[in-house]
Design goal:
By secondary structure, this protein is an alpha+beta fold. The protein has 20 helices and 28 strands. The protein is elongated and about 195 Å long. It starts with a strand and ends with a strand.
């Protein structure tokens, strides 16, 4: 406690100081003999009470009191004077003096000390009360500032730091600042403080806050702590209010955002949402419910399902609601709902709606339409059942026929067709189609390279839905009644197409399920192709085995006779020395050489050669004629070209020419000329009787000339290797005429 004693009498002042130090040992006593010095002490020291004389030079005690009250209206002021009167006492009380005592003797110092204690205690109590009121007022004011939820955040926080300095002990030099993460708010005319007090806090969202108050000058010199304890409490409380305010705004913002999202969901979701009470009456329906059943919320709230829906539907829905109410457990069920006469399937999730006490107060439901999903499931199941049937098909045409039926019955592609790729003609030809496809576009076209959407999709290999073919540059027929198309490529085998006169009639689900069907069709076509290749390979192997067996039979049979004759005659020669036996040996050996040559040719030419190319028949025939002993026979040729192997074709002509000369004589004429898809070889000889024509190509057939009986067998084998049919008939002169025609994709052309 700091006391200020003012008296122009230094002796009396010392006496007063001495007595007060005894009576108030914890007090710090300051003295002044002049009013001016006293005023300086008041401004520089934390004076808690003034004891002043009345009569002093320049200014009496009451005038001094008035000066003090101008700047410190609550500071205790005791008039301790040697001059006493009722008039002075009255003036002192009117001027606001705290107490009034006269200087009468040592006993008055006891009374003075007691009055000082009471005055200071009352002053401090009033001061603390004023500070507390000031603190509470500041808290209330700032709380009111932060209560206005409609205000802008930055504006309200700025008001806080603007008001806060006014609540401090020395507002004239007080400043405040508030930092929220990287944003700072400061009081007006803010300067960095000389003394400051700072508190920190963190919001629930993790935002860091720092609140600082301070003084830009020293408000009370030579004082260690310029801030009152109440001010420290005030600062902490204010920051707590700001933190709570930010938390409240954050929670409110989240609630508003959640409410906004909920409204978005309720207003825009394609799911049907509704809330019913325990009696089955509607409490709430969302926008999709209103749209679906063409009702307003006001019309349906308070109604039950019996008043809105058909009896069967209402009974099923109410039974499901009752399960939830009775068990208190959520359920998920499929419900069939009739909308505008159309039956749809919904997957409904129904949960109990609880009140604040936790009791079941109703049913909340969310129903999502799954009609399309159920249809897709049906289609997938039907496709799975169709797979064995597709895989059991034995021909590509059979696969295609079953494919268009599956596309129509399972995928509801009424107008659809399958075009298979023809490698020979490089085109997509229609193989199977529905009646609806014929009714829609008439005769189905054959597509070729770069002239249609179908060919583009087939080449690209990507399933495609065309919303409007009229907008596609590759449309095959601009006048077509078809508007939308679905194209499903079948790998290298072809394409499945579906059409509709309605634009955008095929969606992504049609595309997805269609691709599954296309995959099954591709597998079935691949199986047919593989099975066909296996059958052909088996037939080829069987034919090769047959030829090997025949070849082995020829070797063992045809060579055995001349070998036996040669061996027998050689033995006779050795026994008798008769040279005539050697001639028979020579003849047998020559015969064996011819047989070996022909058998070797038969083995070589009986194997197909895959590397065929266009060959001039007339040129090969003339080359073969030069290689054959034709004596004086004549060859006549006409231009002709076939696809084949030149060396095998040469062997064919050599055997035919030897046969013609052997049967027709040395002056026979042989002609070679073209046929549609083939060529002919004929002679002017005696011909072959009709009853022998079925056996002329068999091994060992001969009409008596010195042939091996293998030549025409070689001709037959070469024809087979080229996929040619051989027909034997008469020439116009009655000679033999051999006609060769391609049986499978063999190119022939006149030059």
């Amino acid at each position: 406690m700091h006391l200020l004693c003012v008296d122009d009498d230094t002796d009396f002042l010392d006496l007063t100081t001495t007595f007060l130090q005894r009576k108030l040992p914890a007090a710090t006593i300051h003295t002044a003999t002049r009013v001016h010095d006293a005023q300086t002490r008041i401004e520089t020291e934390p004076i808690a009470c003034i004891v002043s004389d009345y009569e002093m030079p320049g200014q009496n005690g009451l005038e001094f009191l008035q000066t003090v009250r101008e700047t410190h209206p609550e500071l205790p002021f005791i008039l301790f004077t040697g001059k006493g009167s009722e008039e002075i006492a009255s003036e002192a009380i009117s001027a606001g003096v705290t107490d009034y005592l006269q200087k009468r003797g040592p006993e008055q110092y006891d009374r003075l000390a007691t009055r000082i204690r009471h005055a200071v205690a009352e002053y401090q109590t009033e001061h603390e009360l004023r500070e507390r009121v000031k603190e509470l007022t500041a808290i209330q004011t700032i709380s009111d500032l932060l209560t206005d939820s409609d205000g802008q955040l930055a504006e309200q926080l700025q008001q806080v730091v603007t008001y806060l300095p006014q609540s401090l002990q020395f507002p004239e030099s007080a400043v405040a600042s508030l930092s929220i993460d990287e944003t700072e708010f400061t009081s007006p005319e803010y300067d960095p403080p000389v003394h400051q007090l700072t508190v920190h806090d963190v919001t629930a969202a993790g935002t860091e806050l720092t609140l600082t108050i301070g003084y830009t000058t020293d408000p009370v010199p030579e004082t260690d702590d310029v801030f009152l304890p109440e001010e420290e409490e005030l600062l902490t409380t204010i920051l707590t209010l700001v933190t709570a305010y930010l938390d409240r705004r954050h929670v409110l913002s989240e609630l508003q955002e959640a409410d906004r999202r909920l409204n978005l969901i309720l207003e825009n979701t394609t799911a049907v949402m509704y809330l019913k009470d325990t009696d089955g009456r509607y409490v709430f329906v969302n926008a999709e419910y209103e749209r679906l059943f063409n009702v307003d919320s006001e019309e349906i709230v308070g109604q039950d399902d019996e008043a809105i829906h058909p009896p069967d539907m209402a009974e099923t829905v109410q039974a499901n609601d009752l399960r939830v109410l009775e068990t208190g457990e959520p359920i998920e069920v499929e419900e069939r709902i009739t909308v505008d006469g159309d039956e749809r399937t919904y997957l409904s999730l129904k949960v109990p709606a609880l009140d604040t006490a936790g009791n079941v107060a109703g049913v909340f439901g969310v129903s999502t339409e799954i009609t399309e999903r159920k249809e897709r499931e049906r289609q997938l199941e039907a496709l799975n059942r169709e797979i064995p049937r597709l895989l059991s098909a034995e021909t590509t045409a059979e696969v295609a026929e079953r494919g268009v039926v599956a596309a129509r019955e399972i995928l509801d592609l009424q107008a659809n067709a399958i075009h298979l790729y023809d490698a020979e003609n490089e085109e997509l030809a229609p193989v199977a189609y529905t009646d609806a496809a014929l009714e829609l576009i008439g005769d189905l076209p054959t597509f070729r390279d770069t002239e249609s959407i179908a060919w583009r999709v087939f080449a690209d290999g990507t399933a495609t839905a065309i919303d409007d073919v009229q907008d596609d540059a590759d449309v095959y027929n601009p006048e077509t009644p078809v508007r939308s198309e679905l194209h499903l490529p079948l790998s290298e085998y072809g394409i499945l197409m579906a059409g509709s006169p309605t634009p955008s009639d095929f969606d992504t689900q049609d595309l997805t399920i269609g691709e599954l069907l296309a995959a099954h069709l591709t597998t079935a076509l691949s199986n047919v192709s593989t099975e066909q290749a296996l059958r052909e390979r088996e037939a080829e192997l069987e034919a090769q085995n047959e030829r090997l067996e025949q070849f082995a039979s020829m070797v063992s049979h045809d060579l055995r006779n001349p070998l036996t004759i040669a061996s027998g005659n050689l033995e006779l020669y050795q026994q008798t020395g008769d040279d005539s036996h050697l001639k028979k040996v020579d003849t047998s050996l020559t015969r064996m050489q011819e047989l070996i040559t022909d058998l070797t040719a038969l083995a070589r030419h009986g194997t197909p050669n895959k590397q065929h190319e266009p060959v001039s028949v007339s040129e090969v025939a003339r080359d073969a004629w030069e290689l054959t002993d034709t004596r004086s026979a004549t060859l006549s040729t006409e231009p002709c070209t076939v696809v084949g192997d030149a060396s095998q074709l040469t062997a064919l002509f050599e055997n035919l020419f030897r046969n013609a000369v052997g049967h027709g004589g040395s002056d026979v004429t042989v002609r070679v000329g073209p046929l549609e898809h083939g060529f002919y070889v004929e002679d002017t000889g005696d011909g072959i009787p009709p009853d022998e024509r079925d056996t002329v190509f068999d091994h060992g057939y001969t009409t008596g000339y010195s042939g091996s009986g293998i030549g025409l067998t070689i001709v037959s084998r070469i024809a087979q290797a080229h996929n040619w049919d051989v027909t034997l008939t008469d020439s116009k002169e009655g000679g033999a005429r051999f006609e060769f025609r391609a049986t499978r994709s063999v190119e022939t052309a006149d030059p």
